[in-house]
Fold:
Amino acid sequence: MTRRLQLSAVLLAWLLATGSHWDLVQTVAWGRMIGNYARDMSMVEAIRLTFTSGKLCRMCEAVQEAKQQQSDATVPGGKLDGKVLLVFQPAPHVVIDVPALERWVPADDTWSGRGRASPPVPPPRELRA
Structure:
C-alpha cells in the first residue's frame, strides 16, 4: 500500500511541476462552454463554436494568464533574450588492453593426467553382509 501511495505522490508532484493541472482546468472550462452552447444549438455547432470563437470564458482567461505567469516564472528575470548554449566536455577515450594469453603447449603433461595412477579395474562394488 505504501509503495502505491509513494508512486501516486510522485506522479502528482510531476504533474503539478509540469503544469498539467492547468490542462485539466482548461478541459473543464471547455466542457462547461460546450454545455452552455449546447443548450441553444446543436452539439456539433457548440463544439465548433467553443474551439473557434475568439471570446474566452473566465476560466479560459484564468488558465491562459496562469500559464503565461508560469512560463515567465520558469526563467529567472523573465523571458530569454537569446539562445541557451549547452557545453558538453568530450568524454576521454578509454582504452582497455586485453592481457596477453599464455599459449598452451601440448608438450606440457601436467594437465594431461600422465603419470597418475589409473583407476582400479573393475570398479569396487558395494559389499553386502
